[in-house]
Amino acid sequence: MINYFFRRLFTFVLSLALASIVIFSLVEIAPGDPASFMLGINAQADTIAALRAELGLDQPKLSRYLAWISGMLTGDFGISYTYRTNVTEMVGDRLWVSLPLAIYALFLSTVIAIPTGVYAAAKRGKTGDFTVISATQIGIAIPNFWFAIILVGIFAIKLQWFSAGGFSGWQNGMLNGITSLTLPALALALPQAAILSRIMRSALIETLGEDYIRTARAKGLSSWQTIWGHALRNALIPVLTIIGLQFSFLLAGAIIIEQVFYLPGLGRLVFQAITQRDLIVVESVVMLLVFAVILVNFIVDIAYMLVDPRLRQDSI
Amino acid sequence: MTLLSVKDLSVSIHEQPIIKNISFNLGAGEILALTGESGSGKSISALALMGLLPHGSKKEGIINFEGTDLNKISEPNFCKLRGKKISMVFQEPMTALNPVQSIGKQISETLVQHKACAPNELKNRVRKTMDRVGLRDIDPSRFPHQLSGGQRQRVVIAMAICLEPSILIADEPTTALDVTTQSKILKLIQEFAEKDGISIILITHDLAIVANISNYLLLMKEGILVDQGQPKRVFRDLSHPYTKKLFSASSEQFSFKENNLSKEKLLEVRSVSVNYGSHERGIFSKGKSVEAVSNVSLDIRKGERLGLVGESGCGKSTLTRTILGLQSASSGYIKFDGKEVSKYDNNFKKNIQVVFQDPYGSFNPRQKIGRLITEPFFTLGREAPSETEQRIIAKKMLKEVGLSSESIEKYIHEFSGGQRQRIAIARALVIQPKLIIFDEAVSALDVSIRSQILKLISDLTERYGLSYLFISHDLTVIENITENCLVMKNGKIVERGQTKHILRDPKNEYTLSLINAAPKFPNFLHA
């Protein structure tokens, strides 16, 4: 068990190191010099050179990489080229929107998907199953920004339960913050829930065909008891994998939803930074997202171990 | 006293009739054997009695158990009977247990479900049941993957008998187990009937088991009960032609022509050992390794038919893989036709072919038979005949193995298990190799089909002058089809010699235990 944990941890650290090299190199290769972009097309060559020196762009690549990494490790992400402010603060502010949004959306997606998936699997081939399948089909087919617009139309404009956009901040209380994130989280969650629900359904149907399910039924358990007591935990293994992948997507892929709801999130920050060649921001945010993705996968790996005793033992 | 009485039971699945009007009675403490070949409806009958038929099935008739008709009982009431009054043991112990729950928890579940004892007594009851089924030294907190097949089957049995049911249905409980384990489990089941008075419905395809332990037998064919009675009478009279056919297939001895073995060695395996690295390796440590095959030497001479016997896990498959070059040996060497075999040796590849156990899993379902059979021609490289010639050879081979030449345009799912094994043999023969390895090639087949395939193998190899290595756990098969054999245990060859001598007068204790454990027809039948 400890061995498994350390091997995963080792993979985790190694992935981070490799990712940082790839991100740094990609940004280096990408066309567009931040200094000339900041100074505009009429800038003199010597002014650009001076600004490059000031930004540290004239340093050798390796020392810039090491400086970037060591800064990251101590929580110093550098100074934004465009806004001339501390990137750590900029990212920190945005993270307080994006991270709760992603967690909220993931929570909604799981809460919707698991019961519906289980229900469909239990009723396979019957009307209930058909209904869930059709609903998930729609959920997968419709893009989330369209959901966002519909949700705004119904809940913000018609019913006026939620505001149509913007983020009130956490300083006005937890509930306020959560309320303003509800519609975006729901819009993000629905397509994910549709996918997850299907995975849950098929994983559970497959598990229900296993021999040990029949054994459980032969002991006198009812079909719901069998699902709850034996099938669900086994079927959750593929579902966990998908949840891990979805979280990464929800954290980084919310650009359009943030745009629709005017949310000051990470997605918008990256988008702006790219258009302005604010490479230090791009690097930092992307690295942060990669960190989140790898961390979630690490957690999923550990979760496997908790679900499946076969991974827990160190030796046979 | 009749405990269970089944009258005109019929089951259909998706409108397809599977069981047609079967009737029988089961008395208290009786062992009733339900036998027949695969697809005869044995397992479905058991599931019908348990009320656990798959989706889309319909059953008719009366199943009278203690005054109630199980065909009319509601599902919640049926749940109260299952595990308590009627319980069941399944064929596949490897998959019959939930992999993520400890065995203790799974056994106690039956007790908890039927509220059989107080929570503080639970541990005690589980322990007692485990002792009863021969799991005295096993900790209930262990997980299924930490147990052997035989131990897992004992766990399944523990779950089934912990409430002392009136009826225990055992569906092929020992088919997936080794012979030595099989005889122990069968003894245990017999004890339940004799000591505890539990009535047993034993489903098995093995007529020798039926003859040995049952009081009454039902023989099914295609969903119909074709013969029944006390085994002694049924097997002595053999009044029904189907019974006769099965009986002669399972007790058949056929002699094959003695070959004049040349002195020339075709395959030479010298002091081969194979180590597997343990799965659990640290980041920096290599971990322990397991020796699957240890210092094995064997020769196959031209025209020799050699058998290799051993129980599961003895290293048979690893040895085969090593000979085929799919697994590299840690030490020792393998010579073919006098030359040491290397990985890319084409002469070796085109002269050796293999037929595997599972006729269902060893073919690509998306390719036509023609393509499947001609695949070995790839090993010939430039020497391969043209495509038209390949097809002619393929058609000829299909005829040789007893299939029509039109089969070439069909897909594998259109064939039965026995036919698929014929196709596998045709595939092995197309490039006319010198040596074929049969890896448990008839283990998945019914007795009547098994004897046909064995005959086919012996005919064809004689005609083509082939040598083969026949790997099996079944001594009767080895006896019928090989002249020399090796007995393998824990990666080592423990006995070798002429098959007849070994089977009649084994020198090794292990060989003797294998022979004794194998089910045989009792003597009264031969008298």
Provide an overview of this structure:
- The complex is a heterodimer of chains A (316) and B (527).
- Chain A has 316 residues and is mainly α.
- Chain A folds into 2 domains: 2-73, no CATH class; 88-311, MetI-like fold (Orthogonal Bundle).
- Chain A has helices at 2-29, 34-39, 45-55, 61-73, 87-122, 127-141, 144-158, 174-208, 211-218, 223-252, 255-260, 266-275, 279-307.
- In chain A, 34% of the residues are buried.
- By secondary structure, chain B is of the alpha/beta class.
- Helices cover 34% and strands 25% of the residues of chain B.
Largest interface: A-B, 31 and 40 residues
* Biggest pleated-sheet summary of chain B: 6 strands, mixed
**Shape, principal axes of CA atoms of chain A:** globular
User: Mean of the pLDDT scores of chain A?
Assistant: 84
Q: Supply the helix-strand structural class of chain B.
A: alpha/beta
Provide the low-confidence segments of chain B as ranges. Answer: none
**Number of structurally distinct domains of chain A:** 2
Under the CATH scheme, the architecture of the largest domain in chain B is 3-Layer(aba) Sandwich
What is the CATH C-level name of the largest domain in chain A?
A: Mainly Alpha
Query: What's the CATH superfamily of the largest domain in chain B, by name?
Result: P-loop containing nucleotide triphosphate hydrolases
What percentage of the residues of chain A does DSSP assign to strands (E)? under 5%
Shape of chain B: globular
Output the CATH topology of the largest domain in chain A.
Answer: MetI-like fold
Provide the spatial order of strands within the biggest beta sheet of chain B. Answer: 6-7-8-3-9-10
Largest sheet of chain A: none
Gyration radius over CA of chain B: 25 Å
Number of strands of chain A: 0
- Elements of chain A, N to C (H/E): HHHHHHHHHHHHH
The percentage helix of chain A is over 70%
